[in-house]
Amino acid sequence: MGVDGFEWMRRIVLGVTGAICLAYAGGVIMAGGPRPFAPWLPGSAGVLSGLAIYLAWRADKRVARMASDEGYAMDWGRAQRHAYWVALGLYPVFGLLLGGGIVDFEQAFAAIGTLTGGAVLTLFVIYDLMGRSHGAE
User: Fold this and answer.
1) 21/42 Cα distance (integer angstroms)
2) Whole-structure pTM over 0.85, yes or no?
3) Nearest CA to 65 among 56, 75, 74?
4) CA distance 6 to 11
5) What confidence tens digit (pLDDT) does each residue in 62-115 have?
6) What is the signed CA dihedral for 53, 58, 63, 64, rounded to 10 degrees?
7) CA-based angle 133:135:137, to the nearest 5?
């Protein structure tokens, strides 16, 4: 696997994990309960994503280092900074939803947790794709 292959594998596994987290959070709100589908799925997806990236890194550390360049560090840092503010904004939103009786504590806890994880992963994939497409011009 070359650098491009490693980068695409990383985007896919992190994107799928982020999508699972976002789907779980959306399901929590839509289903009216804290378990819209298997509650172990978001965490398991995260562990499997980490394992896939680790195994790809072990297979060719040189390629992994090349794929973890300044652009990667910038995209990851940007995703973390923006996801922090997303996570911070979730507390007043869910406070209002709790106060209005729209969600209960279990729903809020499940949604905030998975939205926080899903936000950083999804934002990273978006920023990584944006950065790579701009670099190709």
Assistant:
1) 5
2) yes
3) 56
4) 9
5) 998 898 888 898 999 999 999 999 999 999 999 999 999 999 999 999 999 999
6) 40
7) 80
